[in-house]
Amino acid sequence: MVNYLLIFIAKIIEVSLMTLRTVLITRGEKVYGAVIGVFEVAIWLVLVSSVLVGIQEDPIRMVVYALGFGVGNLLGSTLEEKLALGLVTINIIVADQDALKIAQILRERNLGVTTIEADGFKEHKKILMAHVKRKRKNEIIKLIENSGINSVISISDTKTVYGGYGLKK
User: Fold this and answer.
1) What is the CATH number of domain 87-158?
2) How far is 81 from 134, CA to CA, in rounded Å?
3) Where are the domains of the chain?
4) What torsion do the CA atoms of 60, 64, 66, 70 make, to the nearest 10 degrees?
5) Is residue 168 over pLDDT 60?
6) Can you give the pTM of this predicted structure?
7) Are the C-beta atoms of residues 69 and 107 closer than 8 Å to each other?
C-alpha cells in the first residue's frame, strides 16, 4: 500500500513540475525551466523503474501511475493559475464617449493605458490597451465591470514587453 502511495505522489509531483516547466519555457524563462526539467526527469526515471519492475504481477501500479498523472495535470494547472506568471494584454473596446472614464479608472491604479481610434459596426469606438502582470488580470476585469460602462474585453497572453509604463523587463 505504501508503494502505491509513493507512486501516486511521485507522479503528481513529476507532472506538476512538467506543467510549470512548460509554462516557464513558453514565457521565456529558459534557465528556470531547465532546472525544473532536471528534477522532473530524475523523478520520472526512478518512478518508471519502480512501476515497470514486476508490473505483470502487480498491474495496480499502472492504474495508480495513471491516476497520479491525471491528478498531477489538475494540480499543475491549478498551481500555474495561482502563480499567474507572465504578462497579458487586455484590450477594452468601448464607445468613444466612455473611453476617457475607463482610461482614468485604470490609470488611477497605476496602469499604462494606450487609446486607439476604432470604428465599430454602427459607431465610432476606442480601444484601450494595457499590458499587465497576469496576477492583476481579475482585478482589472472587475474594475471595468464595476464601472457600469458597456465594453468588450479581450485578453491574450503576452510573452515580452519592452519599455512602457509600469512594467520592467
Assistant:
1) 3.30.70.120
2) 9
3) 2-83, 87-158
4) 150
5) no
6) 0.70
7) no
